[in-house]
Design goal:
The structure is a single chain. The protein has ten helices and twelve strands. It has 316 residues and is α/β, with parallel strands linked by helices. The chain folds into two domains: 233 residues, Aldolase class I (TIM Barrel); 58 residues, Winged helix-like DNA-binding domain superfamily/Winged helix DNA-binding domain (Arc Repressor Mutant, subunit A, Orthogonal Bundle), CATH 1.10.10. Helix 2 runs parallel beside helix 3 and helix 8 crosses helix 10. The structure holds iron/sulfur cluster. The site of iron/sulfur cluster has 10 residues, from loops.
Length: 316
């Protein structure tokens, strides 16, 4: 089956082996983050819609999970902000009712959590992973370039409301961009907000693959450690780089043409190294190179060299 709304499983630095569900079209988001690994936002909006017929999404989930794959999480994420989808609540409930053994997570930028209907729809999820990178409007806008109606304080208030309503785990992502949100004033503001929100974990994240803007540089492990110790709070951790184990559980069922489609879909969504693809698919580097050549015969693939190696991606 050709999947349009599922991707991976990918080896996520924060969630382990994770099957992605994408409920919004590329690239529909309320933000246009300078570090976005999916590239620049083309439809910037806060209007919630049912972007795809929900039956189409449920049919793909049924087909994929009929293989009983081993997964750490099923994650709502992808090429935009998942809470913009009016279907998210129904799809989460379907998963919890029909596949209760799988853990459900939602990667969200948090921009719609001030809305009680959005919070309500996310309640059955096991883990919600929202982002908060600055409590100052200027910095917030510089990093996330949101739709103008969203403010930093609205994000903090939405997260506080989520904490009151939600009994699952909140893993708050703070995306660190050296020189932008790393001053003592910025970190003091974040500390105060974290104390109000009471997340279960705070994950200091940084650039791991090419972002939207070339001037964004990753924080080094030493810089992340300094920030962690400056914050001085319990439950704060730096997101570790992916540890590659090339034998990590292959779940690529079936045909070579399936493998080509899966790899094509991965690099269409975000830049990936050979190791990223190998860990997610279980394919060897040699096989992946063969697949990339095959994809290249019909589509454009670009390469970009970064610290972690060569990233392959399909330009928009
Ligand atoms: S990183 Fe997330 S929130 Fe930011 S633009 Fe990309 S999809 Fe949207």
């Amino acid at each position: 089956m050709q999947y349009s709304h599922l991707f991976g499983p990918v080896h996520s630095r924060r969630l382990g082996r994770s099957l992605g569900i994408d409920l919004v079209p590329f690239k529909t988001c309320s933000y246009n983050c300078v570090y976005c690994e999916c590239g620049r936002t083309t439809v910037k909006t806060v209007e919630r819609r049912e972007f795809f017929p929900i039956d189409e999404v449920l049919a793909e989930i049924r087909a994929y999970l009929s293989h009983s794959p081993e997964l750490d999480f099923i994650t709502f994420s992808g090429s935009g902000e998942p809470t913009l989808s009016l279907s998210i609540g129904e799809v989460i409930r379907f998963l919890k009712d029909s596949y209760p053994d799988y853990r459900i997570s939602v990667l969200t930028n948090g921009s719609l959590l001030w809305r009680s209907d959005v919070r309500e729809e996310l309640l059955p999820a096991d883990v919600i992973l929202p982002t908060l990178s600055s409590v100052f409007d200027d910095t917030f806008r510089k990093i996330h370039r949101p739709v103008p109606v969203i403010s930093a304080m609205q994000i903090v208030e939405g997260l506080e409301c989520l904490r009151k309503d939600y009994t699952g785990e909140i893993w708050l992502e703070v995306f660190i961009i050296p020189g932008i949100n790393t001053s003592p004033e910025e970190l003091d503001g974040l500390r105060a907000a974290i104390e109000r929100i009471h997340p279960d974990r705070v994950q200091l994240n940084t650039l791991d693959r090419p972002g939207s803007e070339d001037w964004v540089r990753p924080a080094s492990p030493g810089e992340l450690e300094e920030i962690r110790s400056f914050l001085g709070l319990t439950g704060v951790e730096a997101v570790e780089p992916v540890q590659y184990e090339l034998s990590a559980g292959a779940t690529m069922p079936g045909e070579w043409s399936d493998a080509v489609a899966v790899v094509h879909e991965m690099i269409r969504r975000r830049p990936c190294t050979l190791d990223d693809i190998s860990v997610s698919t279980g394919l060897s580097r040699r096989e992946i190179l063969k697949i990339l050549r095959e994809i290249q015969s019909g589509s454009i693939i670009e390469e970009k060299r970064e610290d972690r190696g060569i990233f392959y991606f399909c330009p928009e």
